[in-house]
Write a structure and sequence with these properties.
Rossmann fold, single chain, transcription, elongated, six-stranded parallel beta sheet, four-stranded parallel beta sheet, 14 helices, about 15% strand, 434 Repressor (Amino-terminal Domain)
Length: about 325
């Protein structure tokens, strides 16, 4: 009966290295990984658990777990998958339900996972990443040796705040996007960029001007109503998401304020509502197609063992200036 020691001897590696490869621990070089898999095949070392791991290691099937499809991101993922000969399975989940979505992967047929704007606790993602190659797309959990493709949310919001400051606004509020009882990294990063811009340009940060939103227009309405009650109102509101910005903008208008004259409003994501708003909303556009393509490329490299050290790839964004900060042209 062939033992794991036989596989290690034939591959010229340690038993620990063989174990790491068979358990899909990707902290192994591509060269050693290939030697182990070749030795396993040559010796026909395939107990049931090992068979599942081998199928997974050789699989060209990828699971994408998401809360809602971002069409351009999925098109980018699928285009690269098709070009490289991979298949894509799409699984819907609630925003914090990624763990449940991958239970069926235990059959070993799927070789890697993309989490598209999912939220996790750190230990959950660590456990998943020990079993599968994982790349996060958009929202992320910042754990050691993680893989991510996204825009730099902090830098983008820094640039947005800088734009508002250069228009002469000085009392600038911020509405976070803290949906589902969480404070996701993207919102924290956007708030960090806002605060850094205030500091760099010598403007005070007013903690009382911070409000919490989610992903809804209603949360923007609620935040704006609170600002309207203040004796010293903000002259600009940086919103971490476009729906929030739309709710704020319309509440200010309905109260008789001029946007952007009395108060400027900005959003993030460049969703359709930012364009149809009156005035249209200054926002950040994310290149979702390119983000999807680069996510799939990174996952394939990880599945092949071509990379084994964590990597965060930030894709360029576009600040789109519209009427909510500069008025109608």
């Amino acid at each position: 009966m062939v033992k794991i020691e036989d596989v290690a001897a034939l591959a010229g590696v340690s038993v620990a290295t063989v174990s790491r490869v068979l358990n899909n621990n990707y902290m192994v070089s591509k060269e050693k990984r290939e030697k182990v898999l070749e030795a396993v095949k040559a010796l026909n070392y395939q107990p049931n658990a090992l068979g599942r791991n081998l199928r997974r290691a050789e699989s060209k099937m990828v699971l994408v777990v998401c809360t809602a499809v971002i069409d351009e991101a999925m098109r980018g993922i699928q285009d690269v998958a098709k070009d490289l000969g991979y298949d894509v399975i799409l699984s819907y989940s609630d925003r914090t339900g990624g763990m449940n979505s991958i239970k069926f992967l235990e059959n070993g047929l799927v070789g890697g996972v993309i989490f598209l704007n999912m939220l996790f606790k750190d230990e959950e993602l660590i456990n998943i990443s020990k079993q599968y190659p994982v790349v996060q797309c958009g929202e992320y959990v910042d754990i050691p040796n993680s893989y991510l493709v996204a825009v730099n949310d902090g830098k983008a919001t820094y640039d947005m705040t800088k734009h508002v400051i250069e228009l002469g606004k000085k009392r600038i509020a911020f509405v976070a996007c803290e949906g589902y009882g969480e404070n996701p990294h993207f919102s924290r990063d956007r708030e960090r960029g806002y605060k850094l811009a205030l500091a760099d340009f010598g403007l005070p940060h007013y903690p009382e001007l911070r409000r919490s939103g989610d992903f809804s227009i209603e949360s923007g309405i609620a935040a704006a109503k609170e600002y309207l009650k203040m004796d010293h109102k903000p002259d600009a509101v940086i919103c971490a998401q476009d729906n929030i910005a739309f709710g704020c903008l319309n509440t200010f208008k309905n109260a008789g304020l001029s946007v952007p004259g009395d108060i400027a409003v900005t959003g993030f994501d460049n969703i359709e509502i930012s364009e149809v708003s009156d005035p249209s909303i200054t926002t950040i556009a994310q290149p979702f197609y390119e983000i999807g393509r680069e996510t799939m490329k990174m996952l394939v490299s990880l599945m092949k063992g071509e990379i084994s050290v964590g990597r965060h790839l930030f894709i360029d964004y576009q600040l789109i200036v519209r009427g909510s900060t500069v008025g109608k042209k």
